[in-house]
Amino acid sequence: MKSIEKLMRKMEPQHDSKWAKFHPVWDGFYTFLFTPGETTKRGSHIRDGIDLKRTMFMVVTALIPCLLFGMYNTGHWHMVPTGEAGAYMDHFGDKLIYGIIQVMPIVIVSYAVGLGVEFIFCIKNKHAIQEGFLVSGMLIPLIIPADTPLWMVAFATVFAVVLGKEVFGGTGMNIVNIALTARAFLFFGYPTMMSGDKVWMSGLSETPKDQLADGFSGATQLGELASFVGPKADWALPSAEAFAAKWPIMDSFWGFIPGSVGETSVAAILIGAALLLYTGIASWRIMLSFVAGGFVVGLLANLGFDNPYYQMEAVNHLVIGGFAFGAVFMITDPVTAAQTNTGKIIYGFLGGGLSICVRVYNGAYPEGVMMAILFMNVMAPMIDHYVVGANIKRRNKRLKPKAA
Amino acid sequence: MVDHINIFLKAVFSENMIFAYFLGMCSYLAVSKTVKTAVGLGAAVIFVLGVTVPVNWLLENYVLKEGALTWIDPSYADMDLSFLSFIMFIAVIASIVQLVEMLVEKFAPALYGALGIFLPLIAVNCSILGGALFMQERQYSTIGEATNFGISSGIGWFLAIVAIAAIREKIKYSHIPAPMRGLGITFVTTGLMGIAFMSFSGLNYAEAEKESCGDEPGTTSETGAVEVESESDETTMVYDINSEEN
Fold it and tell me: ipTM of the predicted structure?
């Protein structure tokens, strides 16, 4: 460690050298490795062990279980179409290696491109590097299919970082979640690569038809469910019972299902959730009300029409698709969420409800959770505004009798 | 009943005047600096749309449409006055806006001052005429549906302008790069909000997908609550309207 610090110190660009404008980049790396040595000289300041860098790193740590599981899951579903996969834990090494080869490049590209854009902006604007992208760079690979071409990942990352964040003034100023912006960009820009039933299993689009196992379908659970919205002849499965038999709820919980890289395993997500809640980074109000909102709308849908999709158990809604991932890592993003405590509950509840609404009623968007969260991001300032307004009104009322 | 819910959801979310058709952008951009004025203008737009669309519906169905004049005399059955619809709709809108202006001036002078020139400009707000023309094009069968459509479109516009006003209040103190400040960042924000609103309008895409691949599940059920029927030709139609007006 000592030698690294010496090396870093030696590399520090001095004010008069021609590298002076790269000081923010150096500073970013230095403070990433070491706690800054400078202390406050005067005045009183509150000091906390957890700063932005540490916060971001905690979230990245919380995402690691999802990433590891996602890699293995990618490998597993790569083998399923040809019928080589066997039981979930068979061919452990092969699956893991395939998953790493498939997913790691996406992670690397997302980080390299995103941080590159960030560096350019901080050199140009002459401010210290902001660490916001550490988390977004990890989230982007986790919410897209493992087969997404790398140039698309790079393109979406640039779009999201520049138009989603930098034009608003950088970390902490954005109004929509960066990772979701990237995903929405891909979703609307390249719909065939982001939905349908060819993309969710890595390598499926290149596998010749005659090598596929009998009766095989590449759709996700939600893709199959969405077909229930259509006419009966188009249904992927005959009934809700057939769906429940094909996808037992515990499989969905452990994550043995196709889907985006990181969103499948509720178990892995819960590990991350525990860490985020324990460290207080994510708001339990939002998380809880989001799940509650989803559950309530799931129940309401049960009352409605006589259609297998609507009849699905509300609990099942919570473990399939991106709902759990959205509840833990997306809607809780402290920058884009509502800031007031009451607002957080409203925000989470509406977000959860809307997710299931989009999923159930809008057949084209089976994976509607991400879009619903994006919508709530946009609405969050309005919720805050009215919550604050209500607070002011209440206090004024309390004040008036005293004044009189 | 289901029809009414469909019209409401479509007009507020999936065919939002601002985020789906980008109608009424001028006052949307200009008056969205604070939530308070945005709420005022939004309410005025709801009111004007809620009144003009049903009035125009009556006009359309009892005066302008081919054969609409038969209630006077059966011999007018082949009379078609629809070439007058633009001018008639605008006349109705202008007079009702005048009424709103007088009401606002009388009962909310502060709001009247804050809205300034944009209050009379509601008369040429694209979303108001757009509402009337959509009503004509979509052939709502009863005046109830037309009223519902007018008010719902107004609510959609209200939601949009209040949401962006809240965002603009929030980002007032952000370190936005100098060239982007003001209108520039508002445009970017509007674009991002448009993406967010697209979560409600997916069915268009699903139909296109079905045509190209042939294996996408169909989405033409009775039960889908948010049914979007607008095909691509309708969208181009909208742009035509827009360009004629400007």
Answer: 0.82
